[in-house]
Structures are given as structure tokens and as C-alpha cells.
């Protein structure tokens, strides 16, 4: 099978959209990622998958921690910015919690220490032990078949 067929099939799985952030010496680093999942309740663990060519790979290895910002449907521009789709520089007003930069008004904010790292193909899987979390009621930003999506709100 070719790479394009694989990517197309994997794109058929609807996901939320996250921005992964970390900090080194007070400098914030971030990237958009949809490869995120919960792993364990006891201990509380989550997983992010970072490509070997992503600058964020070395940043998480160096800092030993990361934050997962699950985006709301109103934060599409944050996803595009941290994915490199918006080129102009922006001054992002990060909130600092537990010495980590997080995006304000995200559906959920999850701050983790790296628990384990596993190389898998052309990615590294970082399992993070959750040290802080908060969530709020808001509609999430979705990604499906290469496009951003929103919930179609059904009548209750």
C-alpha cells in the first residue's frame, strides 16, 4: 500500500484537535496534533505521538513535560497557527499553570510529566503522567478527512 492510501484511510477516523505545548528556559514551544489519547486511569496517563522530523520532539525530550490543549470550535486559528498554516508571527497570550504555557479557553488542559517514551516507526510516543487538568463545557474542534469540522448540534 502506498503512503497516500494509508493517510486517506487514517483520515477517516474523526478526532479532536490539540495543541501540544512545552517550555524550555521560559520559551514556549507548540505544535498542533490530533494523535492524542487516554491510556490509563490508574495511574492517569495520556499519549501523544510526535513525528521524528518535528521540532517539538527534541523540546519534549529536553523539558520532560508537556501540556495538551484540547481546542474548542472557536480555536481553529490556534490549530492552524501551530500547524504552520498561518505564517505571520502572533503574540499568543498563554496562561501559565504549573510552569507550563497553556492556551486559554480550551475544552480541556492537561499537564503531564513524561512517564515513558517509545520510538515507533517514524514517531515517538510520549506517555505522560497527568499532573494537572481542567475542563469546561464547550464544543470541540474536530478534524475528519483532512478538514476541520464542527458538531452538528442535534435537538435533545
From TrEMBL:
Domain of life: Bacteria
Sequence ranges assigned to domain Flavin reductase like in this UniProt record: 10-150
Transmembrane segments: none
InterPro entries recorded: Flavin_Rdtase-like_dom (IPR002563), NADH-dep_flavin_reductase (IPR050268), Split_barrel_FMN-bd (IPR012349)
Single Gene Ontology BP annotation: pyrimidine nucleobase catabolic process
UniProt keywords, alphabetically: Oxidoreductase
Descriptive protein name: Flavin reductase
